[in-house]
Structure prediction request, 287 residues.
Amino acid sequence: MPGYGAGVVFLVRVGGLVSLVQSDAPFASYLTPSISDVGGDGAVKASTKGSQLVRLSGAQMGSRALQPVTRVRYGPYDPTNTSPLPAAGRTEGLGLEFVAVDCEVGTDQQQIRCLTAPGAGKGHWWQVRVGNQWSPVFDAQSSYAPPSIIGFEGEGARDASTRGNQVVVVQGANLGPTTGGIDRVFYKAVTVVGPDVAVGNETTGEDTEQPAEEDLTPIERLAVVEFEAVGCQMTIAHEEIRCVTAPGVGRTLEWTVIVRDQRNEDPVTSYHPPTVRAATSRAGDQA
Prediction:
């Protein structure tokens, strides 16, 4: 008959009498569940807010009538860990885990359906527990979507002080949960440097578009200066990060947010251009 679990004992009923369980009686078990595929909207580039459908296909997953799924978990595999994936029920070295929600058997023995939890990251393994039996870990390489930046607010977003210490509010999507998600926030000034090009075009004050790296001549190069944003905190889960600028210069500042090893494309802000209040000649005369 359909069933699930390990440590199963058999009882015999004769008439109205049921046999006793002997202390040395052997235990039986059903086959452990296994996963062979992970699909659905929540499997690749899922929303970090969660609540997206994931379908786990495999074998020995139980029946819809019994609904024996007790836990489904997933998380990133440590790329520095060269050991084989752990056996059933073990997740040593696999890293932080997420717990899927509202899991149920969708197709008898063959498919479990769940909703993703809020999270972030990529390269995720999956594991299911049916009754008291864990499946082996399945390296699905599922992922949440990488962060994206939509815009900036705050006094440090445009014409920021070169002294730094101004607030920049980074607005976006898929920035991750409120805790434990932000790896790094930094921004960089990229300027073409050559015999006839002044860094940042400060000689003319003009805001000219920088050529692509493949269009540069052999005597030109890209000068890149990185600045580390300070004290970054998630102020609205998945949507907003608050940082403080570092001292620096630059007109077009490309921002990068890294959330659990995933980075965004590069939107821009700027520092205020330099101003000259006075000039002094070599002889010490003020101009």
